[in-house]
Amino acid sequence: MTPAFSSSSAASQRLIRCSASPRRTHAPHRPSSMSPPLRKLKSMTEIMAKAKHVVLEREDYDDVSCEECGSGDRDDELLLCDKCDKGFHMKCVSPIVVRVPIGSWLCPKCSGQRRVRSFSQKKIIDFFRIQKCKDDGDVLYLSAQAIKRRRRLRSLVWQKKRRRLLPFLPSEDPDRRLKQMGSLATALTTLQMEFSDDLTYGPGMASRSANQAEFEDGGMQVLSKEDAETLELCRAMNRRGECPPLLVVFDSCEGFTVEADDQIKDMTFIAEYTGDVDYLKNREHDDCDSMMTLLSVKDPSRSLVICPDTRGNIARFINGINNHSPEGKKKQNCKCVRYNVNGECRVILVAIRDIAKGERLYYDYNGYEYEYPTHHFV
């Protein structure tokens, strides 16, 4: 119900909102015989169009529904615009709202924000800086055949005994690969992040010379020569646009998460954890929920962490398990391992069992050095 406004109160509201003209402490002197000039009053529609926050609140909001999907269900996810007073589900607006906003919130139309549109093939190639080849189809076919031949040459017993890393098998359908990369590009754009498939050493943070595996205090594995070749092969495939068969999807409970778009074998390389490298002492009070230990040193001032808050890749969206419950532990299908790669520290995500298509990826956030609190994880 719209409350009624008197002409005097409406006029006072207009004077308060009219910040362009300075206020006067004394009225100008006019002869008593002169009548004040008539002033044209603005309509309420004009005022609401220019004002930032003008909402005529209703007594009952039970009939509010989402403007995008038309449903009034899931009222705990329904946001009301502070300007137009219309309802929107958190995952129906574009870009998606991951958390309930603190303070005022405006819908994309009222805020003037551009919608996050679907990425075309050209935009995806530019976004990931894919290196174009003369014949992408032949390159993909040859790389896939090389991976299959490599798997055939290694017997099952030898593979289980040595636990060698396996390169991922990209989807053979180019349209599926574009869909997979498009989902990652949308998630990164929503969080206002840049894509980076390598560690970044920025000014004011740790330098590359600080990332020396020899400083590690005993919790790092050495990458074998064969596994190092697998890592380089996967990096080369990523540069050509041959990504792992993974999709980034949005869940109302878990936010952005990653699920397999095809079957993934045990010990398959998933992704390298990337982002800005910084000293742990600089990030002790950081609210980033995805920091990863890179280098653990006896001297805490020299320990390093990876911070994917401004730059990162798909590893940023793989969620952790609740390792305090049996159900949570059963969901783990990946493992995060820190490796010594040519003298530098690297963090790699590896599958620890066969992952079926449509299954979401989870790993344990806890490292060997401390217990990460995961009681609140789904």
TrEMBL record:
<dbReference type="InterPro" id="IPR001214">
    <property type="entry name" value="SET_dom"/>
</dbReference>
<dbReference type="InterPro" id="IPR001965">
    <property type="entry name" value="Znf_PHD"/>
</dbReference>
<dbReference type="GO" id="GO:0000785">
    <property type="term" value="C:chromatin"/>
</dbReference>
<keyword id="KW-0808">Transferase</keyword>
<keyword id="KW-0539">Nucleus</keyword>
<dbReference type="InterPro" id="IPR019787">
    <property type="entry name" value="Znf_PHD-finger"/>
</dbReference>
<feature type="domain" description="PHD-type">
    <location>
        <begin position="63"/>
        <end position="113"/>
    </location>
</feature>
<keyword id="KW-0489">Methyltransferase</keyword>
<dbReference type="GO" id="GO:0005634">
    <property type="term" value="C:nucleus"/>
</dbReference>
<dbReference type="GO" id="GO:0003682">
    <property type="term" value="F:chromatin binding"/>
</dbReference>
<dbReference type="GO" id="GO:0140953">
    <property type="term" value="F:histone H3K27 monomethyltransferase activity"/>
</dbReference>
<keyword id="KW-0156">Chromatin regulator</keyword>
<protein>
    <recommendedName>
        <fullName>[histone H3]-lysine(27) N-methyltransferase</fullName>
        <ecNumber>2.1.1.369</ecNumber>
    </recommendedName>
</protein>
<dbReference type="InterPro" id="IPR019786">
    <property type="entry name" value="Zinc_finger_PHD-type_CS"/>
</dbReference>
<feature type="region of interest" description="Disordered">
    <location>
        <begin position="19"/>
        <end position="38"/>
    </location>
</feature>
<dbReference type="GO" id="GO:0051726">
    <property type="term" value="P:regulation of cell cycle"/>
</dbReference>
<dbReference type="GO" id="GO:0032259">
    <property type="term" value="P:methylation"/>
</dbReference>
<dbReference type="InterPro" id="IPR013083">
    <property type="entry name" value="Znf_RING/FYVE/PHD"/>
</dbReference>
<dbReference type="GO" id="GO:0006275">
    <property type="term" value="P:regulation of DNA replication"/>
</dbReference>
<dbReference type="Pfam" id="PF00628">
    <property type="entry name" value="PHD"/>
</dbReference>
<dbReference type="GO" id="GO:0003712">
    <property type="term" value="F:transcription coregulator activity"/>
</dbReference>
<dbReference type="GO" id="GO:0008270">
    <property type="term" value="F:zinc ion binding"/>
</dbReference>
<keyword id="KW-0949">S-adenosyl-L-methionine</keyword>
<dbReference type="GO" id="GO:0004402">
    <property type="term" value="F:histone acetyltransferase activity"/>
</dbReference>
<dbReference type="InterPro" id="IPR011011">
    <property type="entry name" value="Znf_FYVE_PHD"/>
</dbReference>
<feature type="domain" description="SET">
    <location>
        <begin position="244"/>
        <end position="366"/>
    </location>
</feature>
<keyword id="KW-0863">Zinc-finger</keyword>
<dbReference type="Pfam" id="PF00856">
    <property type="entry name" value="SET"/>
</dbReference>
<dbReference type="InterPro" id="IPR046341">
    <property type="entry name" value="SET_dom_sf"/>
</dbReference>
<keyword id="KW-0862">Zinc</keyword>
<dbReference type="GO" id="GO:0006357">
    <property type="term" value="P:regulation of transcription by RNA polymerase II"/>
</dbReference>
<keyword id="KW-0479">Metal-binding</keyword>
<dbReference type="InterPro" id="IPR053114">
    <property type="entry name" value="ATXR5/ATXR6"/>
</dbReference>
